[in-house]
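Q: Structure for this?
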Amino acid sequence: MSEKPTHRPSWLHRYPLLGPMFGLMFVLLLFEGMIYRHSGMNFLSPETIGLIITQTTVVATGTLGMTMVIVAGGIDLSAGSVVAMTGVIAAVMLKHGYSSWLAVAVAILAGGLVGAINGTIIARFKMMPFIVTLGAMSTMRGFAQMFGDNQKVNYNLGRVEGVNALMNNPYSLHAAGATPWWQAGDTGLSLPAIIPDWLFGILKHFMSPDSAHPGDLSVPLWMPPVGVLILIVLTIIMSFVLNRSVFGRHIFALGSNEDTARLCGLRTRTLKVLVYTLSGMFIGLAGIFALSRLNQGDVTVGMGLELDIITAVVIGGASLNGGVGSIWGAIIGALTMTSLHSGSVQMGWQSYIQGIIIGIVIVLAAGVDKIRSRGLKG
Amino acid sequence: MRLRLRGIEKSFGATRALAGVDLEARAGEVLALIGENGAGKSTLMKVISGAHAPDAGTMELDGQPFTPREPRASSDAGVAMIYQELTLAPHLNVEENLVLGREPSRWGLVNRRERRERVRKALDMVSHPHLPLDVPVRALSVAQQQIVEIARACASGARVVILDEPTSSLGRHDVDILFGIIARLAEQGVALIYISHFLEECRAVAKRYLVLRDGKSVGSGELAQIDNTGIIRLMVGREVTELYPQAPRTLGEPVIAVSGLDGPRGKPRGVSFQVRKGEIFGIAGLIGSGRTEILRSVFGLDHAAAGTVTVSGRRLALGAPGRSLDAGLGLLSENRKEEGLLLNRDLADNLTLSRLGVLAKGGFVSRSKQLGVANDLMKRLDVRAKSATQAVGTLSGGNQQKIAFGRLLHQEADVFLLDEPTRGIDVGAKAVLYRQMLDMARQGKAVVMVSSYLPELLGMCDTIGVMCRGELVAVRPRREWDEHSLLTAALGRDSDAPDETNN
């Protein structure tokens, strides 16, 4: 109760991204050292980094929504099932000849609808998000199986056409002798269809590994698939929305203390419904990315994915008590998880070792969170 | 002498909660501990129970030095507390609750026969041998739960039992049963300390009394030898100090009019009042009399069952805090830690949360504008903090309260509903808040202040209303009130006939 300000913020508190960033660097350098000793190869090659980023996209897209939900004091356990369901819906539409654009739109809206239903039940009946979304997890997996007739859904699109172009790297395919994607008839959602010609020209220039032949694309070289570019843009937007918009600040207030939020006149119910709906749309997009990577609808995809997403959000500095969290932190968290996975594979470790390591990382991340929130008077 | 306290003192930072308490409780006797809200009764209980260590003074139990370091040590020594809020495990049954934490056991397994024996003995002591043992306690009535709580004290072999406002949630009939149990415990040689506001109850159950005021024991003796006026004089006995700023004001037309307001759980009942521009309206009453519930129902945090609230001539929708806020109402919660503030968010967020829109363009908040507003308010309220970007939870109580109040200023509320605005904060912060309240009133705002601290109501308000058992029983200009009459009205008796009993 003394009047003297005794506040001395720790560096972790002042720069909350430093912790996750440090963790990611540590993991990358650790594997670099171990793999170099083990096989004399570099872990930190452009190819591996590119692969890690591409593999992270589905989880990372999920974290954009999940961060919002967790910051608002909730949780969404249905994410994995919704990824499967929206992917299957899109696959079925493609199978019946609908356009890629329409399939993507319907998948995103379906994800949003599931989120809206979850959010409405949670807000209207004051139910625990854990229970409601646990129910949705089972229900939505069931719908995925129903829509997909409980088997894989194949559709007639090439690996660099339409939806499939979102997550597949056209350059490696080109090297393997496939038709150059910019010459393919249906470019669908691939890069030139989305960005203006002048930007494509600049990108083409930078893609060359050989300064003697600028613009020569005949050599395989890593360049992010379109889905990754979309993810980066969405991350920037969402980070801005969560940190700077009135809506975002209200989400933090809601998760920090719902009673205070009501006291300050916030429409807490509406806010919750909006948060889950928007989050569901991101999960729907993650479903599209997962589909694009597999090139077929799969009702078993995304089992346990919700836990990967939640883990990434927590590693990124979010508190499951709500009110704290960061979009960029969650993306770093997702990259950390993929790096662990990828490094373990290159070391030739069994999958159970990955499980053990990831478990330890989760608890360590939560421990850092504990240190960070020290110094707050209850 | 069972329990003897000498010169107990306890401070929290600058706040002196106990400033020399002497207490003697004899075996086989009930001692009534009387004092206004904030006189130090709960702190004293916490010292006896071992939750706080005293800064000075000595305690003896049956002649032996008694220095409990934690609540467990105190209850092991035979001192049991019965709190206002029951502390039973709702899902466990009566038998399990009675021996919780003291289960008779061997090799980690509960000895059922011995448990049954102890439970029977304890229920005999409280004269309720037929209480069902295998029923989860949440299925029992509040009165029965309280009996279980007292029986638990007996089962732990308590020599001293302290009851804090035990009748606050009981009906008339249950109160009589409770008094019977208390008398029976005293017969069996237990020393009891009975804490209550209600003087009639104290007379019915206790033989001796001890009055606390401002953390000091100011009088004790036999209840038979003192009348209620005498006790109230002991409880009050102080002058209104210079802490309260004064300035001439002219009162304008009514800003807020409340009529026939019924709360959602029968509290408050049929409350009507109005507050004019420039007026500071005080609401006095005991804790639990429905004071807080008035403000919550008016603001819409509780959905009022009936009645109307009119602000500046417009009727307000009930149960919609967002709309109340738009209409110009602002509420300062009595519970800043659990409701009033986002403890882990920074000062700027907390100050501006209720009206972020004015700092935003196209839906995005300008952080520099937000910080500018926050810094202005912090300067105006003399908030001692490093910067507007630190978490509110790192501030002292007084500075936290200034932030919670500052939010109403940013919101530009026309009606300030203040629930215990100065509870638990230091004198410096109090002075800042009093000054701000007066400034607001001078600018033509209406201020409604609920407080347990009578001198502050008398020092600040133009009009004071008194709540008693859910009803607003008297509204009068300040000059017609003094501490004595406020307290008598709050205790449920007419101020003109202070010695008549009236239940």
